[in-house]
Amino acid sequence: MRFLFKTSYAQDIRLFRDKVDLGWYGLLGVAVLVLPFLLDDYYVGETTWVFIYAICGVSLMVLVGFTGLISLGHAAFLGIGAYAHAYFLQSGMPWVAAMGLAVLITTAAGLIVGLPALRMTGIYLAIATLAFSVIIQEVFTRWESVTHGFAGMPVSRPVIFGVPFEEDRAFYFLCLFFLVVVLWLTRNLLRAPTGRAWIAIRDSEIAAQSMGVNLAIYKSTAFAYSAGVMGLAGALFAHKIAYLAPDIFNILLSIQFLLLVIVGGLGSLHGAVFGAIFVALLPPTIAILRDSIPATMNDVGSGTGIALIGRVGDAIGGFLSAPGVEAGIFGLILVLVILLEPLGMYGRWVKIRVFFSTFPMYKRATFKRQKSYMRSERLR
Prior knowledge:
By secondary structure, the protein is an all-alpha fold. The protein contains 17 helices and four strands. The model has no long low-confidence stretch (mean pLDDT about 85).
């Protein structure tokens, strides 16, 4: 059992909670560095998707989880970053400059969207960002001189300072590097007054305003930072997917990002990573089960002489092969998480950790949600 007693404000905002946590993160770092040498190219590619989705998750987590602003249009920012990066690369610009300009353009787009959204909250802001996403998708389709419309735009693997990143393993390390940078930068922002102001706005706009937090500045900052990080993810996304088309960046992708942060755990950087693991690995897991379950159950049925087992396996395989089953499973999991575990995967992980830390003194009521409102909220 390990208890931490904080005796200063500096302990509350330091990067790592203590040396034990630092050691665990060090072990995790060694594991992700060794992983691509132990896996084949397919699994290295899937893990790379996890890193890109985790960057997207951090981007949306800043807006939804830490500032309390709902967005249904983040696929548009991903598309802006991807198309801008691909366009500058095709214009002959060096990779680093193309990446930097793509992030700057996406940041500016986020600022432009964030300014009129200052007076909106909740469902109205969600609808406004959804409309922005639809408009941007239409721009991708019609601005053929830049995006090539439905003909699409090919994107090759990056070449940075003359060093090609053609192999999956090299691209894996590139995405890992940017994920670590984004996590470190976001963590530091959250420890700074900017992050504290975002969280204060999320908890109560009236209370934050009464403490001197400028809502317009900090909401715009959150939008701009979130969009910039999404633009960075978009540039990596373009290289990973290798061919850009307007219909990729649709509303379903935005909802998938929202699912990522909710399932992972709102208000936590760990939740963004957990959600990315879930969202990125669920489709290949379904594909593997679709192929393996009927074959395995048919073998078992043949071996035991029970034909029912084989028929059940075929039924499961048919269900997993049905069109739309992936979206249905996503929706079902989202509903179950909201009903049974609103804190998401990270919240469940914290409960498991506390259970083993305090056993046999663990009490279930420790995490009982209490319905309470601040006085300023009741005035609305």
